[in-house]
Amino acid sequence: MTYHPKSEFMNVMMQRGFLADCTDYQGLDEALSKGVVPAYIGYDATAKSLHVGHLMNIMVLRWLQKCGHKPITLMGGGTTKVGDPSFRADERPLLDDAAIADNIAGMQKVFAQYLTYGDGPKDAIMLNNAEWLDGLNYLSFLRDIGRHFSVNRMLSFESVKSRLDREQSLSFLEFNYMILQAYDFLELNRRYGCLLQMGGSDQWGNIVNGIDLTRRVLDQEIYGMTTPLLTTSDGRKMGKSQGGAIWLNGDMLSPYEFWQFWRNTTDADTGKFLKLFTELPVEECERLGALEGSEINAAKIILANEVTTLLHGAEAAQAAEATAREVFEKGGVGDDLPTLTLTDDELGDGISIVQLIVKSGLAKSGKEAKRLIAENGARLNDEPLTDAGLMVDASQLAKPIKLSAGKKRHALVQLG
Predict the structure, then answer these.
(1) pTM of this prediction exceeds 0.85
(2) Which of 156, 185, 224, 304 could form a disulfide with 262 if both were Cys (CB 3.0 to 4.6 A apart)?
(3) How far apart are CA 338 and CA 397, in angstroms?
(4) CB contact at 8 A, 171 and 98
(5) Could you tell me the domains of the chain?
(6) What is the per-residue pLDDT for 240?
(7) Helix, strand, coil % (nearest 5) of the chain?
(8) pLDDT tens digits for 398-415?
(9) Quick check: helix, strand or coil at residue 56?
(10) Residues 78, 127: contact at Cβ < 8 Å?
């Protein structure tokens, strides 16, 4: 694309690799050049924490604010009751109001690390779409909003079509989701002057719906922008690891494990991730990403430190790096490893090593732990662990023991 933007925000988006598509590059660029643009991203409250898959769009909101505009984090207190069917094979489990409120509180902690909230013109605001969705009158909504939607067009959206093509059930409840998301954009424009919705490229259809609806009902010109769906160089979806989701809340994933996730980035992704997930200058990201051999490891440590500092603070990043050095370079234990503390009751007369591997999070099940041992992937205090029937008792836990799965995942087990 040869378009050269005038606004700082569009420049950042294009240079750092955040931009997949935009409904009107020039129109949005003009709006961004003229004054403060309120822009939003929506988050359904389906878990207590956001995960690494959300981080690119959180960084987009952070850059938006750094470039002098107003981020809106829209929590889906209303839409979570319906569930986004986009590219899913099945219906999401439905949550009650208490669970949704609990999840929103957990997600709030993460946003507070990246955005400045407040009452100023460029301060971020957090809204909940339950504010306007919970009180909707069904008949009025059908008459005033539903009439603007063509079922033929809704069926043509890839997110719906892929589900129907596989002959998987799509409930009427879920089919309404795209209408509710479109209505969110209309309400945010009407109430808060919001001009831009952003999201992953899988949200393109939903975003376009909202722009179309707002134009028809309010005769307002608004915009949409999507970020690329991020896969790692080996084709995996970003944020998925063998151990499950890479959560952003420190009580669900320790800062050390978060740091380690970034330290384990493949060589080919390092430069790209530095541009997307840190605030280092683009030229520096490119220089670091081009390093080869053992030098690229220094770039990965910079990546891990920068990303961890943004989320957990500089002290946590330094502690994680020190622990990694202790564990990997000196074969020591390190202070910051994920730690499982057993009570006397839990230990009883002894506990199997397989149970300890599962409890410490190094394997998801006993079967997986046994396979790890059988394939020589497990170690106890840095020695190969070969006996899946080994029992651990209080005498062996007189001082903490270190369990390892492969070369990069470790945990401590101690008695409380």
Answers:
(1) no
(2) 304
(3) 16
(4) no
(5) 8-227 (3.40.50.620), 254-329 (1.10.240.10), 339-415 (3.10.290.10)
(6) 55
(7) 50, 15, 35
(8) 777 888 888 778 888 877
(9) helix
(10) no
